[in-house]
């Protein structure tokens, strides 16, 4: 459902939609899960991967119209999702599969404001930042950290 909505929304980003702006910038927030898989994450990983690939493709399609699309792929954020014991247990199993400890209370998360700051950086940059991988320091499996 999320991918379908992203595609429909992205297809609507045509020059007339934004009026006579000199350029337009769009940030699509997907997930590090789209580029790094984990045990029992096949459906989640493939859905997030599809959103990342869509962001890349739509970026190429819209760039000639001066509509610049950026993909932000955050890792785990401290949004409260990881507070539930069932989630902690699953994360512990995933950590163990990567060779990390299985302590369910040792989940490294970043504050959601980190994602907000990345968006501000992208939107205020003089260049076209095509993608950003952002994870908490020490977040397993260290890809992008």
Overview of the structural elements:
Strands 1-2-3 form a three-stranded parallel β-sheet, sandwiched between helices. With 145 residues, the protein is an alpha/beta fold. Helix 1 (2-11) runs parallel beside helix 2. The chain contains four helices and three strands, in the order H-E-H-E-H-H-E. Strand 1, helix 2 and strand 2 form a beta-alpha-beta unit.
Terminal CA distance reads 30 Å
Overall mean pLDDT score? 83
- Using only C-alpha atoms, the radius of gyration works out to 17 Å
Alpha-beta content class: alpha/beta
Strand content: 5-15%
- The helix/strand order is HEHEHHE
Measured as a percent range, the helix fraction is: 25-40%
Helix count from the secondary structure assignment: 4
Please name the CATH architecture. Answer: 3-Layer(aba) Sandwich
CATH class: Alpha Beta
Query: Main beta sheet: strand number and arrangement?
Result: 3 strands, parallel
Fourth CATH level, the homologous superfamily? NAD(P)-binding Rossmann-like Domain
Low-confidence stretches: none
Number of strand elements: 3
Brief summary:
The chain has 145 residues and is α/β, with parallel strands linked by helices. The protein is built from 4 helices and 3 strands. It has a single domain, classed as 3-Layer(aba) Sandwich (Rossmann fold), CATH 3.40.50.
